[in-house]
Amino acid sequence: MKRIFSIVATLCLCVSLAVACNPTPDNTQPNNPNNPEKPTPEPDVPQPEGRNELVAQEGYPEGMKVYYFKNFYEDGTDDYCSGYYAIVDTKSNPALKFNAVYVEQDATPSDIFASFKGGTPLLATNGGYFWDGTSLSLLISGGKVESIAAQYVWPTYEGVSYTACPTRAAFGVHADGTPDAKWVYCCPDDGDKPYAFLAPKGNNEEKGVFTSTPWKSTDGGTLWTPQEAVGGGPMILWEGKNVAKRNYWREVLHSGGTGALVYNPRTIVGYTADGRIVLFVCDGRQSNGSWGYTLPEAADMLAGLGVQWAVNLDGGGSSVMVGKDGKALNAPSDGAQRRVPTAIVISLQN
């Protein structure tokens, strides 16, 4: 039986969910509806409802807030989902930086945190999908493409194997610090450079519809050049709307084991209409007693925090958030942190 959870009280983050704005026609540019002439006020402090818990974590610099949450499902049981989320405001504190990190030899997020050289690390999470130590998702660091998303996958529909070329969600930060989210495919006819689209192209795994390779000339595609970016999928929020289930099928993630419609640990990155970056990790599989969320439920929670665009990253046993002391805040479901080839690090520039 599906459980509907109670969302932690809405954190407005100074924007109304009704004020969703359209992406710019030129999709090389980020979704940036913020009026630069208006100052960005401090977010409201959310308050938990009923038995739910919300605890602010101490010791983070100006512009960065980290919370522990515990949300009970609304089915009358004692079952719940718990985890952590961080809100990073690089406008109020320009010294805060989002870093997409690729490592040649896979390592735990705590090890990546400890060896980070781009300032003082404050927080880290796991990144995109991988297999046997090799990244299967886009990773751009310092403007350089370090790994590309899988260009071909082989889903099975009604017992028949197909070849599909998935256009999958990615989150990036441009040189001016503005966050962005697009569907991206690395086009083989242009040296595997990432091209951004305003919708996933052509696939629908639920209906057995699969598309051929997108090219740089494919309608709607434009070269995507963020300074930092991490890919995963699916896109779960677009302009504040919950699009998790639809994009799960359109990004061809069911055969890969993402498990969008069952309870799992999750790692998600997104941003608000005024440019605050939100990192989210929940425990699942009864680690820390938490069952986890389905992707549509996680999208609902993030929308309740004011997030307008959000990208799911690798989850399950990979999901971890490392705090300012370099140790895991949550409890990874494997019992220990997995070694990963990509990660996100929030740092304070010295």
Task: Tell me about this structure.
By secondary structure, the protein is mainly β. The protein has three helices and 23 strands. The chain has one domain. The relative contact order is 0.22. The chain has helices at 109-114, 244-250, 295-304; strands spanning 53-57, 64-72, 80-88, 96-107, 120-126, 130-131, 134-135, 139-141, 144-147, 156-157, 160-161, 168-173, 179-187, 193-197, 222-223, 228-231, 235-238, 241-242, 266-272, 277-282, 307-312, 321-322, 340-348. β2 and β3 form a beta hairpin. An eight-stranded antiparallel beta sheet has the order 1-2-3-20-19-21-17-18.
- Alpha-carbon distance between the two ends: 50 Å
The 3D shape can be described as globular
Number of alpha- plus pi-helical segments: 3
Seen as an oligomer or otherwise, the chain set is single chain
Proportion of residues in extended strands: 25-35%
DSSP strand count: 23
- Stretches where pLDDT is under 50 for at least 5 consecutive residues are 1-29, 32-43
- Rg (C-alpha, Å): 19 Å
Structural class: mainly beta
* N-to-C series of helices and strands: EEEEHEEEEEEEEEEEEEEHEEHEEE
User: How many domains is the backbone divided into?
Assistant: 1
Question: What's the short version?
Answer:
By secondary structure, the protein is mainly beta. It is built from three helices and 23 strands. The longest helix has 10 residues, at 295-304.
Task: Give me the secondary-structure topology.
Blueprint: E1 53-57, E2 64-72, E3 80-88, E4 96-107, H1 109-114, E5 120-126, E6 130-131, E7 134-135, E8 139-141, E9 144-147, E10 156-157, E11 160-161, E12 168-173, E13 179-187, E14 193-197, E15 222-223, E16 228-231, E17 235-238, E18 241-242, H2 244-250, E19 266-272, E20 277-282, H3 295-304, E21 307-312, E22 321-322, E23 340-348
Antiparallel strand pairs: 1-2, 2-3, 3-20, 4-23, 5-22, 5-23, 6-7, 8-9, 8-16, 10-11, 12-13, 12-16, 13-14, 14-15, 17-18, 17-21, 19-20, 19-21
